[in-house]
Structures are given as structure tokens and as C-alpha cells.
């Protein structure tokens, strides 16, 4: 067929026309085309054939699943569920000794807002940070391995819902609280709300060498609630902004009582100045944290009135403005960072709240954007052409508008009730303007039904042209709240774990395998390889492990298959145990052999043609 | 653009040619077209635009994740992770009282082989059954709700790996064991393997009204291992077949020792006759199970030699033949059910193993199919045109061949190392011949890298034409082993749970909400609704729950939003608790308030514009 295309050159125009024709037929109009997707149907835009890769990773929160969802864009294929706050037998996470300790007994988390580490206000692809709203934790996932590297519990907090987000060189990962709460989670009647309950912002440090968190300092704020927030860039790089709601101090029926005020606040604070104040000792130590109290330590923290119950605020890519969205007001409000600094400098304050000076709305506000009929704006994303994008929860649409003029450029319907959205490189100083993904809360009948509870959805929107185009609707498990989309070539994974002769408990040759008994502790130094387990090569049955009932057993297992993607699992029947060793990894499984009997052991992660034969037995001699 | 297509009619041929041209360019050749996919590019074949639905559900095992993965075909979009053997905070599964009890303390399972319930050898779309290889359990998922309805532990087993599969009217769900093991899992040295270790097949009953399992009977078999197996259809409807491996009785290093024999066996047994024998009392009661021992109870169980270490056996759609694949021999072997019955009738036995007569291979075997260069065949799937499909693990391909003649029709490369495959309606009496999905074990560089451990993959193959066509490669979390693909209109979900005034612990009106104390037990009869919790409408703060440290708390929560897809979550901060109530559901959360303090409660599953405000407080007064 290819042959007669060049032969009939008059048909080439027909061919192009036909493409559009088929686009019309199968996937709606493709719009005016100005980019590499020109002349592609929507089907073709999302189709990544075998042999090609997606252009971007999307790192999405998994909400109350506790996990990180990794997607490819534009195919919207889910590449991986990375366990973060919840045990995951598919990868042995939370079963082996190290990850079990890291989880600290928790079996779930509520992961809302991923933040990729940044260098010079650009995603650098090294780590992604995660918040656990439910249990006040922060986690870091190493993007070399897509493994969770560290989890830290944060004292004094009441649900770090408004982050994580990072400062422009990842000096801090910021976690503002959602629910105000007595410090330390102590008991205090709700009648004492204004007095005893506090909002806390945690400024967390992460050492990229040791891969460990450390709590830098905390900021004590009024008992308001905080929502998705942002750090400044370039000129505003020392500042962070946060939206607040429930400035009414409601303690019950927030649905009504926290929606009374026409204005809530943006909190604007200078993390660098506060860092210096902490270094100067201007803090109180509370439950192990260095806490700054703005009623005592003046300056560096300001409030700006903003339209009712906002659900997010974001600096523009150039860092000169920040845009807040009033969830219960139909407004996007643009504030000038320069004007805010002027007001700060001139001490042009209209009020003070809990020691925090309030800046004059009219002087700092640059423009209110109020698209007709639009309702429920959430936070703002950006492209490379000076445009902003807002999801509208209630009117179920995305609105594209010009930051400089407030002009509405385009609107596209969404199915349905979008929460936040994420643009390619959208939180950096240089969003690239190719894709926007809307994270939708209600799918209705978008997909085949899976019962009373439907999937959420992610909708892919091509924003490379003047007109937005909804390209694809993709179902997703509960529940993405926020995501970041990063260029694929920024993430550099390792193919295997390096063979490390000095690593404690590792065994690299069969003759070093052994079973050592110390009192009632049994230590197995074993090997997993295609296609067998070797616990003790010198034994009659190298894959048999016999212990006594009541023994405490430690299985130190090294995967000596130093080949990409050859992961071995290790499950013990009826013992509720399963963990894995990736190529070159050593992991330890610890358990008490409290049940006597005969328990098959087998490789749970398909590894080779003789995977089925990769097994052994745990024999527990009765007491 | 549409306008000038009709105007330039001479270009229509060009348009069609152009489609193929673009197919060549973007997605490989589309092959000769004989079905509704004619003239569609691969991109168009998998693209399901908003407003349309997938044609099929694919119900896939989630392997050691323990869960059921639900996909749409042909889009290959994952519609839902249904928790089965592993707790899942995203849905509260294993956190609320009822599902926690159902899981029985286990925090993982190894789900290998889903089986959809059948009526007259056709999927009826009512339930899907699941095996837990690791912990010897069976589960049923109700396809009206996609919720796990029941889980039962099976005595005497050593990993039910060779099923589940169902008889043609779901009289039994069959679970043959993988690892032989002393009955009851008792301790016995591996030196006593041939004497004390047993293979067990469980014949499980499921009551579709009460949605409860019951163990019908078990069959004691030699200490061999068993792999993916099948029940007969039509003429063979009373029979089941199972492949065996490790007929060498190896107890160590199975990689070598279980691969010595050139022939292992197919076990052929008549479940209806055995049922009668059980009814006649010809069984022993062992650990609560009725166990038939073929060394004592003669007849109804036979063995047939088969090529080395087979990995599956399947009846043809008409039930007249069964096809086994020798994983370590490059053969698919077709056996005649009629000839097997003849040999049984004539007592034409060549040997006896553990009381089981062995049928003569040459007389029962109809044909060996040995495609040149093909290595590692797994089990067999079918289309509607008399063809069979086998995945080849080692040569990484799918082979299509004619059952009647053994003729090889087509081969297509797979990326890489396919395990089992699943055809649309493929295990029924009438496979429909549209799609085959290959469940691949090794993805290599098919996708963007997510570290040393890569995703598995599912590859969609269009089998509607003579030539197979690989249409799409889709990543998937660990680890699908088997799947079934069912026509979408066969599954009828309910939109909401019915309002049931008589349901224990349900509360349907605000005035009935209440908190009752009985000693140190606190029972909350509460409501979840958009956008608040009401524990006691008469209280000053209806969403406050104050208890004393040490109280045992029961929160009975009813979701009175009887609207589709309005699910509410219920998380308690720092208490590691989260569950959900779907529309019309009542669920109970039970916990001991052992930590004093102030703990926010909030809706964890996005429900409404004021979801963020749907919260309250648990106050635990210190002792």
C-alpha cells in the first residue's frame, strides 16, 4: 500500500484530509494544530506503540491507598504502584525488617500531595516527597530505585494536608497542617479551640546523601485550616504562600460554620528569615521541635485576605505573582509579589491576627478573574505561553486564561468534578505547555461499572494549541489528589543494586551460605538465584530450613542475579510472610516460628522458566 | 475539513489508503481485515473515547498483591483494584469489622487463578472465585458489587495453585494443591516425603444465595505438584483434568530434581461419581474434611502420561478433547476424551500409581503439536473458529494452530516471557474470537523505567483475523498469573445498596443517631452524608465523639446518600484507622481508645464540594 502513495502524489492532500476525517469519526475534532501532534487523532496522541516510551512520568498521590501512583504521559498507562505509607505484599514492602520498621506499625496513610525535588526551581528528578495527612508523616521516594527511602513522623501536627511542596532548591519540604489541634495531640476540649488549638507548618530538611529527614523548624499559626500551597521562585524564592479556610474557628458542622466569612487569608512567609531566627534561638522547643510563635517573634509572616475558602495558591512560573482560587467564590485572584513586598516594607497593615500583620487586599491584589458561570476553582497550573489553567470543581470544566490580562482563552468540559490538575513541568519555572491532567472525583458512567463505588478518573488535555482538547479519560483507583508531571529524561534509575561485599548480612557465593544458631535465634545467610534458594549449600537439602517451635528466625537473603528485572520473592505458607529481593539486594525477614509443622517456601515473584520449581520447606519441630 | 471529503469522492480510496499508511507509520501493519476493526489502526482499536465503554471486563489475578485487577478490553485501562486477600485502606477493606474478621488476621495472599461462575459452560457474570496459594484460602467476589463476599480456609492443603476453576454449572470450585505436604500441615521430615506428604484437591461448594463457601470433599493424591487445570464441558462435563509435575518426588533443588522424568501425568477424575462415593460414606474425615483416598476407594480417578513438567491443561470448547502443554517439552498434546473413556471402560491400564490406574498414552493421545523452534508452551486458549493459542514462555511468542489438524496458522512475538494467556470468553463453550491477552513476566525496556524492578506487562492481540496482530503493550503491577475476559453485558452491578430499615446497626434519620455507653463499650450509631458526620444530632457538636481512655468503641456508620458513587470515607488521625461506607451501606469500625488526646476525624474519600469540611473530632479523655 505504501507504494502507491508517492506514485499518486495528488492523494497526499487527501491522505492528510482523511486523517482529520477519521479523527472526526472516532475521537472528535482535533482542533487547530501547531505542535508535533499536528494531524494526529486523539487515539494516535495517546497511543505509545511497543518500542517507544512515554514522554513524561506523572507522579500521582494515591490518597488513602497510601501509595504513589506512577503513570506514563501521554499514554496514561500506570507504570507502577510504589508503596509509601501502606504495606504492599506485591513488593514485600512492610514485610521485610527494614521497611516494617520504617512504617512504624501503621498500615495505612493518606498521601495527598507529591512534590518532586527541585534545583533552581526546576524538577531535578532525584526524589519525590509525600505527605500522610492521616498520621502526620512525611516520606521520600528515591527516584533512582522508586523505593521509599525514609519516613518521618512530625510532632505537633494535625494533618499535613497543604503540602508537601518544596522550596526552589529543596532547602525545605513544607508541610502545613489541615486540622488545628492541641500541640502534641494532647487532650483539650473543643471549647478551648481558639486558645489551645494551633495550626502548624513543618519545615522539613532532607539530606540527599544519607537519605534521611530532619525537622528543621515549625511555625505556629492560628487554628485555621490550610490547603494546597506553594513556594516562591526566583525573586520570590525565599517565600512561601498558603491558603487558609475555617478562619471562623468553627468546631462543628464545618460544612456551614466554616463557610461564613467572605474572606479567608493567604499566609505569606519568608522561610529564610525564619531559618535565621531559629538559628538565633528565637524559638520554643515543643515535643522535640523548634517552634516559632508569631505572637512572640515578629516579622517574616503576613496574611492577605482572599476570597472565601480557597483551595490552593500558586506562584506563577516567573515568581512575580501568586494566584489563589476561592473554592466557594468563583474567583481566581492574582496577587503581586512586588506589591506585597512593598506593603511589608512600608508596614502597610490593616489588621493583625494572632501576631500576624494583615496586608491590604486592594493594594496587593492585581486582578480578580471571574469567568461567567464558572464555579469552584481549585489551584492554578501553567503553560509556557503565559496562560493559567484552573479546574472548576462545581461547573466541571477547565478554564484557560491569560495571566497578564485575565482574558478567558478557552473552556473545556470535564467528566466530572475535577479536583486539582497537573501540567507538564507545571510547578517549575518553565512549564512546557504540552499536557494538562485533570484529577476528577466523580466518574459517573464514564467507564464500565464496578459496583456502587466507581473509579476516580484522570483526564488528559492537550494544551499545546490555543484550543484545549480533551484527549483521553482514564480510570484510577482511589484516590489521586495531586500529581506532578516530569520530563522522562530527568529521572535516572539504576538497573540493579550494586554488588556490595561489605554490606552486612549479604552473601555472594554459595559456600558462604549458612544457618547460624545463637540460643533461640536462628540466622539464615541465604541466596536467591534463578531458580533456587540456598540457605546452606553444605546441607543435604540446601533449601530446607528446620527450626524449633518458638525460635526467632532471621532470614538474610541476597539476590545474586545481577540482571535487570530479575526480582525474587520469598513467601512462607500459612505464616503470613512474603518479601522480595531485587537484583543485588539483601533484605531480612524476621519472625517467630510459633506454629509447628511443615510449611512450603516459594518464590512469589515470577523469575524464570523454572520459577515454579524455586521452592523449599520450613520445618518447625514441635516443642 | 469534513466538507470536502464528499465533494472530492475520488479521494475516498485515498483516504482508506492513507489510513493504512498512517497505521504503518504509527503502529505497524494492520493485517488483513475481516471484522469490525477493519481499517482501524492499532491506536484506534484500543482507543475508547469518553462516552463509549469497553466491550469486555478482564478479571485478572493480582498474584502476591492478593487482589483482583479489573481491566477494560480493548482499552486495557485498569478499572479497579478489588481487595480480596490483602487489606486495602483505599476502600477500608480489612479495617471495618466485617472484612477484618473475613481476612482472619492475614495481611496478604497469593491470588493466582480467577474463575468466573458458569451456567451451561458459559460465564454467567455473577461471581468470580480466587485462590490464595500462600495461605490455602478461597474467596468469592460478588460481581454485583465487586466486593469480596466470603473467604474460607481449606484444611490439608499445600498451596491451591492449580485452580480455582469451576465445573460447568459452578457445582464445584476446584482447588488442587501445588506443594505436597503432610495433612493438616503437620510436622514430618522430608525423608518421609513419599509416605507422609500428600497432594490434595479440594472440591468447594458455594451457595449463591447466602454467599458462603462450604467444603464439599477432598481427594487425596500422590505427593506430586499440580498446575493450571480445567473442568470438562458438555460430554465431558462430569470430569476434571489436572497436570502434574515433580512426579519424581524431589524434596530439594526442584530446578534439577523435579525435571528428570520425560513424562509426568495428567490426572483425570469424575467429580460426579466421587460426589456419590462421598454421599455413600466412602471417605475419611481428616481435619474436618471428607477425604477420598484412591488407594482405598477405587475408580473415578485416572492418570495419563504427558510431556515433561506441563504447566496447564484445558478442555476444548466443545469438551471433546483436552490439550496439555509440556513446559519443559516443546509440545502441545491433544488427548481425546472419547478415547480416554474407552480406555477407562475397557480397563486398559498400563500401570497404577498410588491406587490410580494409568491409561495408555498412545491410545488416548490424538496428536502432538511441535512448532519448530517454539519453547516453553503454557496452557491453551481458544477462538470461535476451531483454533488454539499457546503462549511460549521461552521463545516469547504466541502460536495459533488448528485443533483438528495441528497446522500452525500464525506466530507473533511477545515482549517478553509470557505466562498464561486469556482469550475473550476463552474458558467457555463459546469463545468469541476477538481478543487474546498475553500475561507477560519480563518487560525489559518496554516502558519508562521504574527502577531495578520493572512492571509486568499485558499484551493485547487482535485474533479476529487469520493473522494475529499485537495491538498494545500495557504495564501492570505484580503480578497477574491468569485472567478471564467476559463480555461486558454479562456483569450487572447494583448502583447503590438498598435502604434496609431492618439492617442491624443502621440509622437512616438524623434523630435516630445516638451514642450509647454500656460499661466501657461505646456504641455510636451515626450517619455519613454530604457533607458531614452526625454521631448524635442532639449534641452541641453532632460530629464530636468524646470517650474515655481505654473505652472499646464501635462506630456503626450508615451512608444515607442514596446516590450513585457517593462513597464516604472515615479516617481517625494517628489511630491507624480508615474505613468507608458506600451509598446505602452500614459498616462498623471497632477499636480501643488506648491513646488519650485530640484526634481529628475526616472523610477520606472525596464526596462533594464541601468534602474538605466533612470532619469532626475524637476526644479521648485521659485516664
UniProtKB/TrEMBL annotation, chains A, B:
Originating species: Cytobacillus praedii
UniProt entry keywords in alphabetical sequence: Copper, Metal-binding, Oxidoreductase, Periplasm, Signal
Domain of life: Bacteria
GO terms of molecular function: copper ion binding; cytochrome-c oxidase activity; nitrous-oxide reductase activity
Subcellular localization, as worded in the UniProt entry: Periplasm
Signal peptide coordinates: 1-23
Name of the protein: Sec-dependent nitrous-oxide reductase
InterPro entries (UniProt xref): CcO_II-like_C, Cupredoxin, EfeO_Cupredoxin, N2O_reductase_N, N2OR_C, Nitrous_oxide_Rdtase_Sec-dep, Nos_propeller, NosZ/Cyto_c_oxidase_sub2
GO cellular component: membrane; periplasmic space
Gene name as annotated: nosZ
Presence of keyword Metal-binding: yes
Enzyme Commission number(s) from the entry: 1.7.2.4
